Automatic annotation (TrEMBL):
Residues 305-330 are annotated as: Disordered. It holds the Pfam family DUF6398. It comes from Leptolyngbya iicbica LK. It comes from the Bacteria. Residues 8-112 form the DUF6398 domain. InterPro entries: DUF6398 (IPR045651), MM3350-like_sf (IPR024047), Plasmid_pRiA4b_Orf3-like (IPR012912). This is Plasmid pRiA4b ORF-3 family protein. Residues 200-324 form the Plasmid pRiA4b Orf3-like domain.
Length: 330
């Protein structure tokens, strides 16, 4: 497998040298090595260039590479183009890499070292069934956890304050007063996920228009999106609102707090009005943390009052077919 490793990493090294940094190059080496060690190795089937693209995309997804607010930043489309593969091939190989290596967003094992300080999953530990932040543990406990590889390192302390990376300031946003009857018109684009090449060719855009009232919850929005994209099996999901884009790590994140993950709000308790959205604003929705179906929602219009006699939320327009939830890439 040495020749295969050398061929793939030569491509990822060149890509990292042109567009990324040494941290990315190292993680892509580690991912390639992990795939080489599998028996049988999946790298024996398929083009080296396709695997290099998939590995780069997978590591990029973990580290928000496709978020314009990040540095370095590369769009997924530009990444596919650099490696000379189609969008669907790049997405398919990326999904294979993520599935084989059990890789997900914010996965501490595949997180850039420079981002670990801001990665909440890197510091979560279970104590008697309770999820705690290891940064609040006594220093001697932190040292034991770091020595055992449970946390990445012992965080620095200044006085009584535990520090990692300094948080980025969040700008205050004016509060918009709207009634519960306000009607939001949302344009929802599916922008990434495990889509086959043949599907992408016949469905260059997959978009839905959804109407939802201000008094309804993010859980209601999730349920109508589940229906809009013809999903069959439930999975974890989250919404990311604010910041400079839908994938900004400093967004306000809303999910199922019962999952034990740390969120700014619970989807069942957060209404659409609570998000303080304005016309033209975009926010993100991720469904299934394994396959990572990414959607971008844009607020096209906000009306003062929803027409009576209609049920909300509802789907009013569709463009493109819904991709199968579990695509067959064979």
């Amino acid at each position: 497998m040495q020749a295969k490793f050398d061929s793939i990493t030569a491509l990822t090294d060149e890509f990292a040298a042109q567009h990324l940094n040494d941290e990315y190059a190292t993680l892509m080496h580690q991912a390639t090595a992990a795939l080489c060690r599998k028996r049988p190795s999946p790298l024996n089937s398929g083009r080296d260039r396709s695997w290099a693209c998939g590995i780069s995309h997978a590591i990029g997804m973990v580290n928000f590479l496709f978020d314009p607010s990040q540095s370095p930043h590369v769009s997924a489309t530009d990444l596919y183009a650099w490696f000379g593969v189609s969008n669907s091939t790049g997405q398919g190989k990326s999904k294979q890499v993520r599935d084989i290596l059990d890789m997900g967003q914010l996965d501490p094992e595949w997180c850039l070292p420079s981002l670990l300080g801001d990665n909440p999953l890197a510091w979560m530990i279970s104590v008697n069934g309770m999820i705690l932040d290891a940064r609040s543990a006594p220093p001697e406990v932190q040292e034991q956890l770091a020595a055992a590889g449970i946390i990445p390192y012992v965080p620095e302390t200044i006085g009584d304050t535990v520090t990692s990376a300094p948080p980025r300031p969040k700008l205050p946003k004016r509060v918009i007063e709207r009634s519960g009857e306000a009607l939001y018109i949302l344009e929802v684009d599916l922008v990434d996920g495990p889509i086959t090449e043949s599907f992408a060719q016949t469905n260059p855009r997959v978009m839905r228009i959804v109407l939802i009232k201000g008094e309804q919850s993010l859980q209601d929005l999730h349920q109508i999106l589940f229906e809009a994209f013809d999903r069959e099996e439930a999975h974890m999901y989250e919404f990311a609102v604010g910041g400079t884009g839908p994938d900004d790590p400093d967004c306000q994140r809303y999910g199922l707090t019962a999952s034990g993950l740390e969120y700014d709000g619970d989807v069942a308790q957060t209404t659409i009005n609570d998000l303080n959205l304005e016309e033209g604003e975009i926010f993100g929705y991720t469904f299934d943390f394994g396959d990572n179906w990414w959607h971008v929602l844009e607020v096209k219009n906000v009306r003062k009052k929803a027409p009576k006699g209609q049920e909300y939320p509802k789907i009013t327009s569709r463009e493109g077919q819904s991709p199968p939830q579990y695509a067959d890439f064979d």
